[in-house]
């Protein structure tokens, strides 16, 4: 019987910008404790999330259909305990408030600063 020896946490990164996707994936991969999967659209994110239940999801606000806020709503309906970190290039206060009201786990503004990403991950591990 095969045993799953990969004890790393699963992270889903939802980002349509390839440069941002690569940077965030590299930051998380370099921790050695996160196994990353990626999605480029809201629909791909929802499909992956419902099938795989990652430990944490990094979700860009400005993604194709549905956008990040709508994707967040659907993910939180599927799993109210989901840990979703919103990722954005702009910190529009109205959007931040909306995400917070939906139960977002954290908020990261681009460009990515590894220390801020690691702070979010430390919060995840208690």
Summarize the structure.
With 126 residues, this protein is of the alpha/beta class. It contains 5 helices and 5 strands; from the N terminus they run βαβαβαβαβα.
The CATH topology is Rossmann fold
> Count the strands?
5
Which value, in Å, is the CA radius of gyration? 14 Å
In CATH, what is the homologous superfamily?
Response regulator
- Give the proportion of residues in helices: 40-55%
Cα distance spanning the termini: 32 Å
How many domains, in number, for the residues?
1
The spatial strand order of the largest sheet comes to 2-1-3-4-5
Q: Give the class-level CATH name.
A: Alpha Beta
CATH architecture: 3-Layer(aba) Sandwich
Count the helices. How many? 5
Main sheet characteristics: 5 strands, parallel
How would you sum up this structure, described in words?
Helix 1 links the parallel strand 1 (9-14) and strand 2 (34-39). A five-stranded parallel beta sheet has the order 2-1-3-4-5, with helices on both faces. It is of the alpha/beta class and 126 residues long. The chain has helices at residues 18-29, 42-52, 68-78, 93-101, 114-124; strands spanning 9-14, 34-39, 56-60, 84-88, 106-109.
